[in-house]
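Before we proceed, please read the two lines closing this message. Report back on whether the structure tokens fit the sequence:
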Amino acid sequence: MGFNTRIVPGPAELAEAAAAWTAERIASAVGVRGACYLALAGGETPRGCYERLAQPPHRDALPWPSLFVYWSDERQVPLDDASSNYAMAGDPTAALRRIPADTGGRPRFDLIHLGLGEDGHTASLFPNSPAVQEARALVAHVHDAPKPPPDRVTLTLPVLNAGRAVLFMVQGASKREALARVLRRDPALPASHVQPLDGELQFIVDRAAAGG
């Protein structure tokens, strides 16, 4: 499965493009299957996208009651902790759910948002972590993340690669090297292994990250 890359001028345009792309796929999923299952990404880069989705025109147009929202990863901290992804979402209109520790069957998300770390990690799948090799479990616990907080829970690659549509949002010159390596599929970087088996893979990146 290949991928598409869209380069935008800066963070504001990235947020706008990601929100529009997301809104289209939410509407499509609900139209076809009656619901949309979405996994959000934490960190600062996706924040702008989520702020746009909570504002007109998306706020008024999206089918919120049919949208079920999860996290692609979460830090093991109290929900009101400043580093919690759940806390970042504030008071969402959609039904926001924490990552389940155990569930039957393998879920297929309609839409998955991901970020990219300078070390090539995505979600909480870090280089050289055993979680990257997990082939059966839906989620993996990470106890030694190289950036704080060390304790996290993350969706695994089999779940990410089952997604119908996966979006990487990447911004800033500090991500330039990692992005270049992921786009050429450097196997040393966990993000390179996100390759949906039967789905869409989209990168929306700003010019600084693209090196332009």
